[in-house]
Amino acid sequence: MEFKNGENRIYAVNDEGVEVGEITFTDAGESMFIIDHTGVDDNMRGQGIASELVAHAVSKARAENKKIIPLCPFAKAEFARKKEYQEVEANRK
To answer: Which residue range or ranges hold the N-acetyltransferase domain (predicted)?
Structure first.
């Protein structure tokens, strides 16, 4: 599995070069972005791809010194489960 950066998204490509998942985001000013969608091909679910996509988005935020608003229900759940993501979550108290 390979994860690639696209325009306002990060996507997963399997060994055959087929896109099997993506996480999309929208800029919310210069210092944050909103995760608005995480999706994985039905045949590839249950393999941790969506979690990896969120992890890549968190890495992107850290590298760019940005915060994330996780509006997508899956991303929001990942942020609630993984305390190490909370440092990049916008409006976290």
So the answer is: 1-93, 3-90
Q: Which residues lie below 8 Å from residue 61, measured CB to CB, with a gap of 6+?
A: 33, 67, 68, 88
Domain boundaries, the chain: 2-85
Domain 2-85 architecture = 3-Layer(aba) Sandwich (3.40)
Q: CA-CA distance, 42 to 19, in Å (whole number)?
A: 12
Instruction: Show Cβ contacts of residue 50 under 8 Å, excluding neighbours closer than 6 positions.
Output: 21, 23, 38, 39, 40, 74
Task: Give the confidence band of 92 by pLDDT, cuts at 50, 70, 90.
Answer: low
Q: Which helix (H) or strand (E) holds 76?
A: helix 73-81
User: What is the pTM assigned to this prediction?
Assistant: 0.93
* All residues at 6 or more sequence positions from 65 whose CB lies less than 8 Å from its CB, including other chains: 31
